[in-house]
Amino acid sequence: MMSNSSAAFCRLQRFSCAAAFCALLAACARDPQAAKRAYFADAEKYFGQKHYAEAIVQYRNALQQDPKFPEARFKLAEAYAATSDYKSAYPEYIRAADLSPDDIRVQARAGNMLLLGRRFEEAKTRARRILLKDPSNLEGLILLGNALAGLRDLDSAALIAQRAVAVDPRRPGTYTNLGTIQLARGDQKEAEAAFTKATMLDPNSVSAQLALGSFYQAIGQLDRSEAPLRRAVTIEPLNVRANRALASYYVQAARASEAEPYFHRVAEVVKDPSAWLEMADFYMAMGRNEDAARILNAVSAEPKQYSAARIRLAVIAHLTGHGSEADAVLAELLKRNPNDAEGLALRARLFLADRKNEEALSAAKTAVQADHRSAAAHLILAKASVARGDLEQALREFNEVLKLNPGSIETMLELSKLHLARGEHDTAVEVATETVRTHPESLDARLALVSSLLARPDDYEKARAEAEAAAKAYPRSAAARSAIGNYFLTVNDPAAARRAFERALELDPAFPEAFSTLVAMDVKAGRLADARTRVQSRLAGRPDDPKLLMLSAKIALTAGQLPEAEGTLRKLIELKGFPLDAYTMLGRLYISQGRLVEATAEFADLLQRDPESVAAHTMMALLLHAQRQLQPAIEHYRKAVELNPKAAAAAANNLAWLYADSNQKLDDALQLAQTACSNLPGEAQPLDTLGWVYVKRGMNALAMTKFEQAIELDPKNPTYYYHLGFMYAQAGDDAAARKALEQSLTLKPSKQLATNARRILERLVY
To answer: Which of 302, 252, 250 minimizes the C-alpha distance to 277?
Structure first.
């Protein structure tokens, strides 16, 4: 037990400490300079212990006492950078540099932050300030070289990088920096020499090995990039950059199964939920959706990653055909945060994927309103604008994305595609070339360049060289081989084209472009047996695939195998998601055989046995329609829609057309046409019908958009060009009307349509 004297001493001691502390506070209050030093000293202690949050508070307290305290500004920036809060670090580095114009270290850090912000001219100014004081300062030389490279003065940048090498010829980093600039100049030989020299100076430098591996990837020599990347992982098995780079290499080299352990290691080493998102993305790319969902469900328990994880789960649900589940996941996400721009942008993407263009546009605008700084929101608004035909708005939005996210490869690819579609071939080539320059490792960028070059006859051989280089760089890519095939088709060398597409199918038997092109080539060459064999072999594994069945029916019709064509078409119209043309083809088949009455009796008998068959009601309506029995046809179309609006999309489309063509029930026609478009995504005919309904309602701008979209999906249909030409003539754009109508006549429309087109052409002024 403590004695009275001891207790009294302790009380006195505590009183003395408290008094001293109060005295210190009082002194600081009277002397801001003393206060700032006290706060700064406290912050430095926290910083040394890596307690960055506490350090930030105290550095800010010091700056409240003296806003022009340069060392506190600089250390505050360093503390923010240590927590990866570069957005907050950025202005503090700049302020610190402005307060310390003679401090080389501070100027260098500020300059590098300016580089990250792509403010190259200001970074150049900081570098010059350093070099005026110390012409041989290595940091200043590297900063200046990188700033000049950013300003596209690559020759000067290379000279400065060489000066940096001369200052410290034993430092690998100066050589990797030189190599990067030489590569940007297009001097691959000098770049390779610099990257190789860096690895020779320090064979155990992970950065040097990664730089050499990335160089080989950038120039398309994938086979040579593996060794240095594997060497980097061997040097430091737990190095995140090295593991991530090797994993990405395996994905790029079409050896994705080998990438898994390296993505997994990154996730385990980083120990952050965001790294597991990367793992989930890998599984999604591999089609391993169950593995991805397992990770995402776990990650979504983390509040900071909830939104990102749930968005990915919605994507998986949509891709696997569970649209209602995707809607539910997004609804839950947006209930928690109605202004989640990423979630709103995804909702727009899903609408667009289902060709619900009006809903997509509305959702995209909501996403932009929720966060006007969201690049994802502006990107989907651009895509929705393209789908709606508002190309000027699309261009504005794509450019806004590039302001927010410079170098966005998806945006640059979309821009090149848009300019190509608008016939702006020079601009398309320019954008695609820039995309390859900024993303030399991207196969998609190279293929976009090939496509744009094939639009200019003078560049055909350049397109071939680019396609062959892509195939060499990506020897397992079916898409690269198909690009070579497209070149040979363009220059009318079908034999060489066939070899390229066959090789593409060897690499990826499921690659759709090569398969469909070869079938079309077989049919065009009269090799119907080969086309039939090709389609039948695929149908054996996917007997209910609507697209394959449609191909099979078309080949049978071309070959005159009418019973087989009829059987295939009748199977098609019973399936969910079949092409709308199946009904039309079956009806034409009956007409060509003079079997309208027989077929009508057959389907009437079928309806007696199954009065709720949507397919039977629709076919009955088509047969009656062909016999000009319009009112009975309307009744059967209407009955099909009443039974199942979604399954009766074809009936809704035809009923909408009948109403519009006779100027009846235009409100009903609009609703029916919109229903048909929503339930038949990717089909041109409902878009044309909706356009015609818009014509009848006097909504000409919307009508033009729909006709243009129909042409994009089916560029060989003369009716769609006639409708577009009709609208241009109504709008007084004679040149555009003439172009569309002449294209319609080239495609050999019906006799009545051709007569109408010629009549309009005669009235055009220019």
So the answer is: 302
